[in-house]
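Note to self: user wants both folds in one dump. Writing first protein now.
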Amino acid sequence: MSEHTQTPPQAVQESQPTQAAQPAQAAPGSQDSQPSQPIIRLSHVTKVFADPRALRKAQKNGTTLPRAVDDVSVEIRQGEIFGIIGYSGAGKSTLVRMINALERPTSGTVEVLGRDITNLSEGKLRPIRQKIGMVFQQFNLFESRTVAGNIAYPLVRDHWRQDYRDRRVKELLEFVGLTEHANKYPSQLSGGQKQRVGIARALATHPSILLADEATSALDPETTKDVLDLLRRINRQLGVTIVLITHQMDVIKRIADRVLVMSHGKAVEENGLFSLFAAPKSPVTSHFISTVLDGAPSRETVDDLHRHYDGRLVTVVLREPAPEAGITPSGQNISRLIAQHPVTTSLLNGGVNEVAGHALGAITYEITGAPGDVEDFVAALRGDGDIVDFGTAAAPVDYEKALRASIFSNVLDDPLATVGGGSAGSAQSLSAPSTNAQTSTAQASEGEQQ
């Protein structure tokens, strides 16, 4: 048979995946991660799910059909982990399926590995698809095949010689930590083990690109961490470009270098990981970030704090600077300011997270003391960075007005927050520093206390 005589060129290029040369890369989410050329380029792609007759009729009548993907342009760089996040129905999976031509764009172009694949025939697509692996949410394993048999499937399909198949399967079993499970069937595996089989199968033909479509959505938190660690190792050790599709911001926070946010088929925002978290430009992004980062306390929390504490409630944003990304510092001198002013502070709410190697978070304090001393201290905090002033129990600042006058204002405009179960009263994310934020915060607090 041909599978015993044909020697795939990939088989002699790399014998041990764990010993592959490591590409020079910056830390995840670093602004310095700038590989030279895009490995994937989507230019003004649109996707309408309709038959040709309906499309022609819409064009003739000048009507617009619903677009699953609506004029999206994005470049994905070689060697990075690129995250795409959005709510259900945002168009992220449709967009990614254009990368391996499982979906063809209604308009626009798709370039992969330097070649325009928009209108390529199935025959000409085959060698390109061999360089693209795909990992699925529901694993998509053959129940009648063993672990080793599932991993070997793409090699059998591509007519690899038996000895090369066996060696490659052995390598991959070791790489994903499933050597002892080689002869088990999927029904005998845990969810995390099944996903490891799916990942190993996707790596079988030495792909340059790995598409992971909601690869951790069916897994528990600890198993999710293990799978994400494996994906990061694949990227860092093997140099595989990973496109990660998810609706979970924590997944993005853990391993992505750059991120595209989608909503209603549109590209809402694209940025490096830390810049996205520290300075989101859209309400949708801010709402996603609020699920994983400590930000301004919720309306209910502020009301509860006012019931229990009489002093001035102020939330201080803590943000390390990233000058290369235009991210300014905030709250870096809070300990010194507390020592310099004759006030008493109590930490009531919040915390600090690490995002792409940078500290980011928010802490809410109660501040007590002589009225003039408190005003001076709040002014010093405002001069040192971004704050939200909720006033005192006796003279509270309206919650929405306080946020509107702060860097958290765009979360209040999120049209999907109520649909998704959140509201303006839910924990708010850190937002972009604004040149007007400090002035407007002062005006809002002064107006409420007059």
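First done. Writing the second protein, which came from a different request thread.
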Amino acid sequence: MNTYGYARVSSSDQNLGRQIQELTKFGIPENKIFCDKKSGKDFERKEYTRVLADLKKFSPPTLSKSPKITTESVSL
């Protein structure tokens, strides 16, 4: 099974560490975690685009945004 993670913060002065740590607790290897430091309203995010392109190659995944998992869990 191919497992990917996506972490994002809105600005470059914010830290992705906690999100990455949570994703690795779910068993996602760090080399499969894509990260962006850019506003969520902008979908022109480099790593977001990369992870979506990779996901299209495999069966439908479930994605969730760690800090707001109760409000922003999405199944593709």
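Dump finished. Worth passing along: The two ends are 16 Å apart (CA to CA).
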